[in-house]
Amino acid sequence: MGSLNMRNNFVERLQTLIQNSKFKPRTITELKEFLEIRNVKKERELIDALHYLCSEGILIEHKKKYVVPGEFGFIKGEVVRSSNGYVFVKEIKTEKEYFVPPSHTKNTIVEDIVLIQVIEEPGQDSNKNAVAHVKAILKREKEFLVGTYVVEAGIAYVEVDTKHTKLKLKVIASEKVVEGHEVLLKTDEEGKWFVHDVLGHKDEPTTEILTLLYNFGIKSEFDQETLDEADNIPNEIPEHEYYMRRDLREDVIVTIDGADAKDLDDAVQLRINEQGNYLLGVHIADVSYYVEKDSYLDIEALERGTSVYLTNKVVPMLPQRLSNGICSLLPNVERLTLSCEMEIDNEGNVVSYEIFDSVIKTTARLTYDEVNLMIKGDQDTINKYGDIKDMLFQMSQLSKLIRQKRFQKGSVDFDAKEPKIIVDKDNVPVEIRIRERGDAEKLIEEFMLIANETVAKHFSEAKLPFVYRIHDLPSEAKVALVSGLVARLGYPELIVRNIEDPKEIQKMIEGVKGSTIDKTIQTLAIRMMSKAVYSEENIGHYGLAKEFYTHFTSPIRRYPDLIVHRLIREFFLEHNITKKTRDYWTRTLPKITEHASRKEQKAAEAERELLEIKKAEYMKPFEGCEFEGVISNVTEYGFYVELENTVQGLVSVESLEDFTRFEEEGYMILGTKNTFTIGDKVLVELVRADKYSKKIDFKFLKKTGN
């Protein structure tokens, strides 16, 4: 995202011309004349505006004129893969991939946002990518490349080997760098790579996290201006806020989170009204009160997009003074909140609701484990929280009611195992636990879902600019492949015939529960689904079977939630529904939603990659040991086996010592001695676990049953 203050008048004027298709290609001189600029100050503002619009890909400089990219065949995309000088760019709107030859990459690297021009389209029957040239780098997401320093025959190289980038770059040797060092690479003015800094040796625990953060362009430290701004926020709530907000300090309100959570976004309360309906209050930290638009905190939060959770480290979206302090809904402390109170009848319908700003003081800070014990009837825990036990039991009843209603509409529940890596003080993994998802976790999930839905519906009916959380239909081809596999494995009645109805996906997943293919089909079903993203245009949420959905409940750790709070404040609390305000958000939201979606995906990738590293590191001491597992996926080069602790490894076809044939539609490897397919139970030996390549290799020993 560009950092120019959006109040620059020329940005608005030029964007209005572009939106109304009235912008014509002009040089800077022609633009000054057209806009009647007569002084140096205005000329500087125009130049700043043009730089900003070019950085966002809204305009591009082409043959000394500023033009709208789409009108000249330019396409905005993201560099997604790079290998030996070749680059692949994915168009942001369509996800179509383009191939860029080495001589036309402009030294672009993975995650750069670029403008490309298509040079050659492939034939209709060709599987090749269209050929394009990079015309401009709009934004460099990562300032550095990270690689391992090696010396071969006296020549220094840096090997960059990530999921999306494979390069071996010659660099100038340095006495400060030794083999095995992880280093930061940067380009000079001539486009040549040089070692900018040393992160540490690859075997050092701290280097591992630093390397990961740099690889994914995740900023771990806050700049001084942002920290100073956070430090200048007073701890005390101004007196006038108590009069302007609904005062809920005497109400019984609780937080329910993991035992180690510190950024407590949400609190809940429940009462029963005279009609016998539930009054559910969902109270969310009012981060928008503290993080003002265009402030240092806001610009930093926008850039980060989300908090990132890495084994024993959290990289927060906001400085800890806010995330773990004045915004966190700590027990018995007065906090500012935005509230959504819903009246829900005994069939799970929201019959009325209110959205308002409030001040609360939570009664108790409960953990999921404690609430799960209470729901199960643990007397010691019930005695500890005797004054709120009735409310918690009513919450449990309500959550089950609205959960049942959600599934009746077709919501798809992926109950996949989620691992948690336990590390020691040196960041070495000592245990892999499976996260529990008990009634307490489901309770909070349901309350957040229904609050998110209510807020989204409110904005949709008001026809105001908004940030929706959308989820498109899955790929028809992928659904056919997975449901066909389910049929071949003995469940023909579960074939998905209408992908527009999520109930059919739900039926397939529920139908194999408890079988040997249960977890595998869930994994394949997750892969076949579209990615949920943020958008200013609503198409509904397929997986949740909801017509309206947003993210309102986690503004401490997600930037879109902060924007939703800002929109609530501007449109409904301050009643600022002027044309100017609506136009501003109509222009601004598409850029925010696109950026936030990308940042969310990068954070998820980083979290997954660290899990792979830590799983391989955990398994290393067990090389040579035997394990029982289930075949979770089959490819032409072998099959993957998943162990009970969620670790997955490859049995390669070469290691089978048998003539084999791969059958893609059946997810099968056919050999003269054995046939392997998804769901087969097998005994394997761990041959190799390498955290650097993130690879685990097994050797097949025998089948152990079906």
UniProtKB/TrEMBL annotation:
One of its GO terms (biological process) is mRNA catabolic process. Belongs to the RNR ribonuclease family. RNase R subfamily. HAMAP family: RNase_R. Its EC number is 3.1.13.1. GO terms for cellular component: cytosol. GO terms for molecular function: exoribonuclease II activity; RNA binding. 3'-5' exoribonuclease that releases 5'-nucleoside monophosphates and is involved in maturation of structured RNAs. Residues 589-616 form a coiled coil. It is found in: Cytoplasm. It comes from the Bacteria. Its main location: cytoplasm. This is Ribonuclease R. Residues 624-701 form the S1 motif domain. Keywords: Coiled coil, Cytoplasm, Exonuclease, Hydrolase, Nuclease, RNA-binding. Transmembrane segments: none annotated. It comes from Bacillus cereus. PROSITE patterns: RIBONUCLEASE_II (PS01175), S1 (PS50126). The keyword Nuclease applies. Signal peptide: none annotated.
